[in-house]
Amino acid sequence: MMGKLFKTIESRNLNFQSVGSKEKYKNLCALNSSIPLFSKDWWLDTVCGDNWDVLICELDGKIVASWPIFQKKILFFSAITQPPMAPNLGIWIDWHE
């Protein structure tokens, strides 16, 4: 089964991006009810302010996976960590085909 999945992915246009993906993610959150509450854009805006971003994966122009991240400054470093008031924040995958 995994071989079939990889052949399917190889035959399509797979695109990963983070720059300018917040607007695409906000549209995805508005249209898709399967995204968890703590991963919704309005929740992240509320608890993180501007310190969050999202990585998205598009397959043939459609978002099939996303990973919102919270960035926090610790001393001189920028770290990806769990946001306040969000018990879980992880990768969302659209398994529908």
How would you describe this protein?
With 97 residues, this protein is of the alpha+beta class. Helices cover 29% and strands 33% of the residues. The protein has three helices and five strands; from the N terminus they run αβααββββ. The chain has helices at 2-10, 21-31, 41-48; strands at 14-17, 52-59, 62-74, 77-81, 92-93. Strands 1, 2, 3, 4 and 5 form a five-stranded antiparallel sheet that branches. A hairpin with a 2-residue loop joins strand 2 and strand 3. The longest helix is centred in the N-terminal third of the chain and has 11 residues, at 21-31. The chain is globular. The two termini are 15 Å apart.
Mean pLDDT: 80
Instruction: Assign a percent range to the helix content.
Output: 25-40%
User: Tell me about the biggest sheet?
Assistant: 5 strands, antiparallel
Shape: globular
Structural class: alpha+beta
Count every beta strand, where a strand is a DSSP E run of 2 or more residues: 5
Rg is 15 Å
* Parts with pLDDT < 50 across at least 5 consecutive residues: 1-8
Span of the ends, CA to CA: 15 Å
